[in-house]
Design goal:
192 residues, alpha/beta, four-stranded parallel beta sheet, 48% helix
Length: 192
């Protein structure tokens, strides 16, 4: 289910308050998307239904294996508290059983300065977050300020600059990389 699903935007509505379009960052979400794509293709091309179904089943099996692998990597992280500094980061947090105890809405690649940064660090500290999840393209000055404030920063590959020629393997590796980054910051199996 899309995070914030059912909330529709209007001219005056922030995209932070409407459906979150990063569902593909959730491996279970990618499974649902794959099933829906296969269903749609089978309706459009009924004469290709058998091959579409077979390919869909193969994709589902690969995604289920990827999910099991990433859950193993992040073993020991479930229940840990995180701050979300990019709306897309909610999906990996939910997938791995992390508690999103704080969320700061900011556009990707934007930073926070001065008193606003001090207030942000205080709010994260007060939330009890053990790490901060954000995009890998976050400004260096923001990640450094958070690290200097004592927070492990998990830079997630949001696949927004994803190269089509990377194919499914590129998606799988990005998911593994995200799981390893979470485990490293929060003491999961991969960090041991």
């Amino acid at each position: 289910v899309l995070y914030n699903q059912g909330k529709t935007g209007g001219e005056e509505t922030s995209h932070f308050e409407t459906e979150n379009p990063y569902y593909y960052l959730s491996i279970p979400g990618a499974i649902v998307m794959t099933e829906q794509i296969c269903q749609g293709l089978a309706e459009l091309y009924p004469d290709q239904g058998k091959i579409i179904t077979e390919n869909g089943e193969a994709a589902r099996a690969k995604l289920e294996n990827l999910r099991a692998e990433c859950l193993e990597i992040t073993g020991g992280c479930a229940g840990k508290k995180v701050a979300i500094l990019n709306e897309a980061a909610i999906y990996p947090a939910l997938d791995y059983g992390l508690q999103a105890v704080y969320q700061f809405d900011r556009e990707s690649t934007t930073t926070v300065y001065g008193e606003s940064m001090e207030k942000l660090a205080e709010e994260i500290r007060n939330s009890g977050a053990q790490a901060v999840l954000m995009e890998d393209s976050a400004p260096t000055e923001l990640t450094e300020a958070l690290e200097e404030a004592g927070f492990p920063v998990v830079k997630l590959n949001l696949m927004t600059a994803y190269a089509q020629d990377a194919g499914a393997e590129g998606y799988y590796e990005a998911q593994r990389s995200n799981a390893r980054a979470i485990a490293e910051a929060l003491g999961g199996e991969e960090s041991n």
